[in-house]
Batch of 2 targets.
Target 1
Amino acid sequence: METAQPTVPGVEEHPCLALVNSVSDSGRGGWRDELATPEALRAWLLDRDLIVPGAVLQEYCRGRIVALRENLRDLFTAHIGGGAPPLEAVQALNRALTSAPGALLLRYEPGTGFTRSADHPVTQVVEHVMALVAEDAAALLTGDDAPKLASCEAEGCLWFFLRTHARRQWCSTRCGDRVRAARSYARKRVRSSAQS
Ligand SMILES: [Zn+2]
């Protein structure tokens, strides 16, 4: 069975990083997608407080979130490589940003008085999630933490993280340990073949 997810710096604070990292190498020659079904997506979003418990998500919603995930991957990859991102990815992010009103509306209730809160009609669940994730990604790519965004250098790892120090290469101790173990195995093999 799957072990617990390793801690990856930046993922707790940034839903955009959590979304990009929701797909990983299964280690068995395929991918493990945490958002493989609408039910899995619903549980994933609930876990992160991105939807309310009663929210309903269809396969169509899942398709849109997964497409946003691919656009985020393109944007992050371009940012890290220093190249220009695909125009479609920028446009898709901007569509997501404006897909739901982000303004906090003014409300009045007798007894409570004025309050402000976002409008969350049940029909726009996916739009709100996309707007929130897109806002987070746009802020990350242009903010103080932008230079810290990195992709894991471990072979087969697809994850992104925020560097906790300048030379950090791995998303997690899981990847760091895996790479160190592989190197030590390779050294032993070189030694034993030199002896024989
Ligand atoms: Zn990794």
Target 2
Amino acid sequence: MSRVQSSTDRVDTATFATHGASARAVIRELLVHGALPRAELARRLQLSPAALTRVTRELLDTGTIRESGAASAGTGGRPGTPLEVSVERHQMVGIKVTGDGVYGVRTDALGHVQGSAQRQLASTDVDDVTHTIVDLVNEVAADAPVEAIGVGLAGTMSRFDDRVRRNLYLGWDDVPLGAALEHACGLPTVISNDVRALTAGVHWSGPARGHDDVAVVTTGVGVGIGLVIEGRTVAGTRGKAGMIGHQRISDSGPICSEGHRGCADSYLTTGAITRAVAVAHGEPSMTLERVCALADDGDAAARRVLADAGRALGAVVAGLVNALDLPNVILAGDGLPAVMRARPEIEESLALHLDRYASPPDVQLLVSDFDEWARGAAVVACQWLLLEPPRWVGTRRPGVRARGRDRDRRRRNDAVPIEA
Ligand SMILES: [Zn+2]
């Protein structure tokens, strides 16, 4: 059933996902590249001037885009005026789930954080974790309408998945978390691999903004990689791209949890680093912070273990650059504060392992907390709405109690009457 909408209604109900494919392509282009004039948009999207005008008029009418503030002053909206997305009008929630905590942010359409909160997990039970996430969504989405939820966590999810696949830290596989959150929160929800989510945020509004080819390599509880090639996140046809943790680095290194000798994990994970220093010191309760403090004090064992980790990381980065000719590599993850103490070893090993004809990459360090990962999950939610919008957005969702008419959805989210 359809009804004629007034222009006020259109502004009230317009989410990214309610627009057609051409309009969503315009939004995406403006988010990724910043303000652009109509002629440039038409050229990039291969749309006729008339088609582009139709699309931009709809987007201007709904307030989704606007003429760029600085440039439009005094022009009266000439065709050459650049257009930009009203990013603050389109907000997402991003959630990062670790083995023992949940981190949530509300962001604008580009992933800029507007509010954040976190919870510790009392258990890894699916219902308990789901309730904790719902509670967190309630808190961060309390002050603004939200269009979608993105959840990032370890696992072999496709780029825009509806479930958690093979998450070792929670012990989950094939858990339909997306549907559970959609039902509880009344918002479309997408699940993605957390390193890919981090990479999406880094690409859209972090240090990789403006770069079409970049790898993000993370160290922490595991070793991960997120790839953007020609502007597009690479997930692999089965969601498994980026499994580099058990790549062989040396024939004589430590043994990892899978029984490999000298793989990247055996040098680089937080567990590997703390175990090696714990053994050297006879201190079973070693932490990464303590390893860093020991290294800073000149402790030989801590420095040797971190130097080995740095050399392993340099070899991993070199392998990626050799294979993919990546001009930009960003090192990140909660293990980075330790590993970056071995920056000379990282660089030395990178130079040693790069093919003689490969171009050395620009390597940047991104030290962050888990909000950065949650922020990336919000960017994935935004990408999902623009690239593969869920079918029920903008209409009443079948099978779920709807309060009032469709246009009340935004107000519903305003008030956040979420059923925990
Ligand atoms: Zn291994």
